[in-house]
Amino acid sequence: MSKLKYFYQCQACGYTSAKWLGKCPDCGAWNTMVEEKAVAEPRRRAPGDREKSMPQPLSSIEGGKEKRISTGIHEFDRVLGGGIVAGSVILVGGGPGIGKSTLLIQAASKLAENSRTVLYVSGEESPEQIKLRAERLGINSDKVILLSETNLEGIIAAAAGLTPGSIVIDSIQTMYTEELSSAPGSVGQVRECAAKLMHFAKRSEVPLFIIGHVTKEGAIAGPRVLEHIVDTVLYFEGDRGHAYRILRTVKNRFGSTNEIGVFEMTDSGLTVIENPSELFLSGRPQNVSGSTVVASLEGTRPLLIELQALVSPTTFGMPRRTCIGVDFNRVNLLVAVLEKIAGLHLGGMDIFVNVVGGIKIVEPAVDLGIIGAISSSFREAPIHPKTVVFGEVGLSGEIRAVSQVDARIREAAKIGFERVILPTTNGARLKDSQGLEIVGVTDAGDFLDVLFA
Q1: CA distances from 64 to 67, 147, 256 (A)
Q2: 105: which of 93, 143, 145, 188 is 20 to 30 A away, CA to CA?
Q3: Where are the domains positioned within the chain?
Q4: pTM exceeding 0.90
């Protein structure tokens, strides 16, 4: 008889304890310790694994560029690094209703058009429900095989018999393996199911897409090891109140990270946005204070994004600071620089900063845009609508150089801007101004003088 073992496991990080704890000692989460039971059995080695794991000299391994498979959606291919690599495991996370299943069933349809059978496994919906969505999206293909199953052993057996070109798992939190007695969605089940699926994908060289639920903090639910197991981690960003969706690469073993793809949610599914910069600047007000355009770089793609700021006297004892789309601590730092270096008295002001379009920016090159928008709103002085700014601001007010300047300037010229304000160091190294007026600045005071000249 196998002996049952009971323990308590944190559902956020996987920490185990012999007794229940209110707070996890490892990750600090409250009320996440859940009782689990598992059969203590020795792990058996699969036949043939010993031969595959024999040591090999590096020089004897056959290399070369990996073969890519196009998904048929070029924005999806962009975030994947150019397409799907055989045997890769791709994790797609995002909030409920943001478009994860819609994107993958559209990609499955495109892959099926290229004579590649796709096995779509759903543990949350019946085949009839998936069929209703497919009809709404205009998808009807004999090569998209639907399977409503949550048992991992049954899924792997079906995939082995079908030998599909790719597999979609929707979602990993609904799957369970018979080797563990814990409930689906628990830390042990998610970790074990993901590991077994990864081994199957690598052994059969079948690309595998896994949909993952996210917590209220925005992280993928389950143990952190889930993101370490897979090859690529993609996050869907965007407010459900906005029609635009941002697919961002967080991890990619076969391409660059922080790459983004821009989509629009319509009645017929997710459609690709061909010119994101023009989209984010549409409806931009002219000759109003507190608005500026920054050239940001997301992965390898330059984007022109509008930053808005509102500065008004506070009616409370403590002024408010609200930031949407940019780092809150970074904005507080830049406000302190404006007070210390530029002499702006912002201590008694409420300051609100917003990135138009629902996109999140983490690049320090938008620092100049933030201080420009705040200064414009504080002085009630509009910025010239054909001006683009970018540059990093240091604590002493100096303007530091950023990367990929030529790509940013090309994007500004394509949209129709006339003047670019950038760090002096970048201006001296610039190869082609694209016919734009290039103005270099060295510190925050110099920048404000040029901006409002």
Answers
A1: 9, 35, 18
A2: 188
A3: 4-39, 67-274, 278-451
A4: no
